[in-house]
TrEMBL record:
SUPFAM superfamilies: YaeB-like. Residues 6-130 form the TsaA-like domain. Keywords: Methyltransferase, S-adenosyl-L-methionine, Transferase. This is S-adenosylmethionine-dependent methyltransferase. One of its GO terms (biological process) is methylation. Belongs to the tRNA methyltransferase O family. It comes from Emergencia timonensis.
Length: 158
C-alpha cells in the first residue's frame, strides 16, 4: 500500500472575531454554491496530537465511565489514533466568499488546526434515523442541538 498525501485547504480560527474556517485563497472558488447548507462536515487534522507515539495507540483504558475496561481507539473520538483525522459537523452562520471565511457557531477543533476538506451536510446521505450505539453510551444526547447542554464532564475519566 502506498502512502497518501494530504494538504490543508485552510485552518480553524477561534478568536475575538468568533469561530471560523479560513480557506486558503486558491480554494475559495470551491466554496461556490454552499449557500443554503445549514451545516458542513469539516475534516480536520488533530495536529496537536500528531506524533509517532500517538500513531501507535490502538487501545485505551476505559475513557468513559460506563465503557468497557479497555476500548479500541476506533470506538472513541480520541485525537490519539493511527491517522489523526477528525470529522465534525458544524453549523454555518455565514460565508464571506471574498475573504474565504466560513463563520461557525462552534467546532471542536483548536485554533490554527489544519482543515483538510469540507463537505455539505445532507440528510439524505448523512443522517441516520435510528442509529444503534452500545449500552454504555446509549444515554448520550441524540443530536448536536441537545449535546451542548449535556454534562459531558461526568462522562469522561479525564
Amino acid at each position: 500500500m502506498k502512502n497518501l498525501e494530504v494538504n490543508p485547504i485552510g485552518k480553524v480560527v477561534n478568536g475575538e472575531d468568533g469561530t471560523y474556517i479560513e480557506v486558503l485563497p486558491q480554494y475559495i472558488p470551491a466554496l461556490k454554491a454552499l449557500d443554503g447548507f445549514s451545516h458542513l462536515q469539516v475534516i480536520w487534522w488533530f495536529s496537536d496530537f500528531d506524533s509517532p507515539e500517538a500513531r501507535t495507540v490502538t487501545e485505551v483504558p476505559k475513557p468513559y465511565k460506563n465503557a468497557p475496561e479497555v476500548v479500541g481507539i476506533f470506538a472513541t473520538r480520541s485525537p490519539v489514533r493511527p491517522n489523526p483525522l477528525a470529522l465534525s459537523t458544524a453549523e454555518v452562520i455565514r460565508i464571506d466568499y471574498g475573504k474565504g471565511r466560513i463563520e461557525l457557531t462552534y467546532i471542536d477543533a483548536n485554533d490554527q488546526t489544519p482543515v483538510l476538506d469540507l463537505k455539505p451536510y445532507t440528510p439524505s446521505l448523512d443522517r441516520v434515523e435510528n442509529p444503534r450505539v452500545p449500552d454504555w453510551c446509549s444515554h448520550w444526547p441524540k443530536n448536536i442541538e441537545t449535546s451542548e447542554d449535556f454534562p459531558w464532564e461526568e462522562e469522561f475519566h479525564f
